[in-house]
Structure formats: C-alpha cells, structure tokens
Amino acid sequence: MNFAFPTPESTMDFGRALGRSLRAGDLVLLAGPLGAGKTTLTRGIADGLGVGGRVSSPTFVIARVHPAGEAGVALVHVDAYRLGGDLSQLDDLDLDTELERSALVVEWGEGAAERLSEDYLVVRLDRREDDVRMVTLEPHGTWESRTPDLRLAG
After folding, report:
1. How many angstroms separate the Cα of 30 from the Cα of each of 3, 21, 70, 72?
2. How far apart are the C-alpha atoms of 90 and 145, rounded to whole Å?
3. Which among 124, 121, 126, 91 has a CA at the least distance from the CA of 104?
4. What CA dihedral angle connects 152, 21, 142 and 5, to 10 degrees?
5. How far apart are CA 75 and CA 102, in angstroms?
6. What are the backbone angles phi and psi of residue 106, rounded to the nearest 5°?
7. Of 1, 101, 105, 111, whose CB has the highest number of CB atoms within 10 Å?
8. 12, 154 contact by CB (below 8 A)
C-alpha cells in the first residue's frame, strides 16, 4: 500500500489516523533516510493516541515513554539509530515488556526489532526532491488484515 503526502501536515494527518488504530501490543517500525519524516509521522501517531509529552527524536536517550491518554494506550518511541545494529542494547531496553502494555514505534528498527513480535507494521518513508513524502506500508501477521482501514486515511 503506497501513499504520497505533499506536506508535513498531511504526513501528521496520516500518523493521527494510524495512532487512532493502535492498541497495546502493536509494533510499528519506521524505515527511511534522515529527513524522510519518521519523527513527524510519530508526532501524528502520538496525537492520534492522545498520549502526553512532547514528541521529539529520542536519538540521544534511545527510548521515550509517553503516558497513555484518553485511548488508554501509552506510546514507547524508540530511535535505534545509535545502536548501530547492536541487538544486545535493544535487549537492555526490555521492549518486549513495554510492548505488552504500550504501542511501540521504533525508528531505524528494521532488521532488529521485528523479533519483538510476529505482528508488526513496517512504514517505509522516503522524501522526494519536491519534499513529497512517499510512504509504503508493509504489514506482517495480523497487520495484513488491519491495513485496509489505513487506506481510507491516506
């Protein structure tokens, strides 16, 4: 499933729709180069979930927990960029425990975080020269039956 978002706001709108669909135990992996819109999308997801706290790239802290809002689902936002593929550091974060009670969004997690769950959604972002964000959804497990709802949001 592919989408084109011409503005950062339209990327956030899609994130809001995705956030409204998330529940505890959901794993979303964000893949794409620097500047593709991963953190912008995560801000939309957080807004859709109604979680507390300012959403920014957690590059230097690696993971941030945003308390649950009205939807009752907390958001754990992870930036695995600095881990450089060191899976032992990902294990140290105890994300499998967090996943039981939160939605987990992992930037730069592809190739490492998939092992946290058989059910995950890869959101692949790319930014064209004209600043349009191209988004491709790659559902796995139960996400294969859930992504048609997201088509309406794009």
Report:
1. 15, 16, 24, 23
2. 28
3. 121
4. 40
5. 6
6. -120, 115
7. 105
8. no
Token output for 40 = 């912008």
C-alpha neighbours within 13 Å on the C-beta side of residue 16: 8
149: its two tokens: 């709802």
Q: Which two tokens stand for residue 122?
A: 């890869």
**Nearest to 23, CA basis, from 77, 85, 99, 118:** 99
Residue 31 near residue 123, CB atoms below 8 Å: yes
Rg of the chain over all Cα atoms, to the nearest angstrom:
14
How do the pLDDT tens digits run along the chain, 154 residues long?
899 999 999 999 999 999 999 999 999 999 999 889 999 999 999 999 999 777 776 555 567 778 888 888 999 888 877 666 554 555 555 555 565 778 999 988 777 677 778 899 999 999 999 999 999 999 999 998 887 566 555 4
Q: Residue written as tokens 């790659």?
A: 138
